[in-house]
Task: structure prediction
Amino acid sequence: MAVFKCAACGAILEARCKPAKCKSCGAEKDKLVKEAAPKKG
Ligand SMILES: [Zn+2]
Result:
């Protein structure tokens, strides 16, 4: 599970792969930045 943070609204999205859009504000994936995963594996 990877964690992505929306640079537009700050929402945290958890997904196995990069979401197409921010679920919170609808920003395109260009705005989603991969964050450090909470745990490895
Ligand atoms: Zn957003």
Q: What stands out?
A: The chain has one domain: 2-35. The chain has a mean pLDDT of 90.
